Amino acid sequence: MKKENFSVNETVDNSEKRGTEESADGAKAEENRGGVESGVRAVENRSGVESGAKTEFNEKSPKNDISTTKKIAGTGIFAALAFVISLLEFPIFPDASFLKLDFSLVCILLAGFIFGPVSGFAAAGVKELLRFAIGSSTGGVGEIANFIVAASFIAVPTIVYHYKKGFSTVAITIAIGSCLEIAASLLVNRFINFPLYMGGGAAAAFNELWVFVLLFNLIKCIVISVLTILVYKKVSFLVKKI
Fold first, then answer.
1. Number of domains composing the chain
2. Which residues of 12-43 are buried (b: 16+ CB within 10 A; e: fewer)?
3. Mean of the pLDDT values across residues 174-189?
């Protein structure tokens, strides 16, 4: 009887042990399956994130480019306005009455900011062609000199603004453009305008009047810059609405 009881007990113990092992194996299988599922979910999530990131980086914001037709028409309008305004010129220094201020550069600078630098240069060129067409006392030399000065002023602001917008960009680049305009004006007057009007006495006359040339162009740049900044937003909004 004792042997039989021992055998029975041993069998029970073995059954319990097998049951425990099977439970442990089942638990491990569940853990493994849970781990696999978690891994799959993680991969899916990561794939989703990567896919979303790629989509976000590949997405292009809708372009609001101004049509070529509108650019050409707008450039023509600004050129015509610049021409008309250039006729309303007036001297600011009695001792250098040949230096006359007008506000046509505002229209040229606006054309460059709104439609791009090429439009700015085109507006400046068309304006000088119109000035030449109505009668030039210099045979076109004065108009070429004016174009050089205008181009030196608008080049940096309009080119940089085309790639990087913002008020700080405008302020810094207009200051640079003003320095270039003043330098160009001094050179143009010394080697083109003064020799054209004063012949052999050009060098002596320039030595006496170069300060007026510098001050005139400094005032001109400040006035043009302030006016452009004040009206740009309204004019740009109006152009985009048309």
1. 2
2. eeeeeeeeeeeeeeeeeeeeeeeeeeeeeeee
3. 97
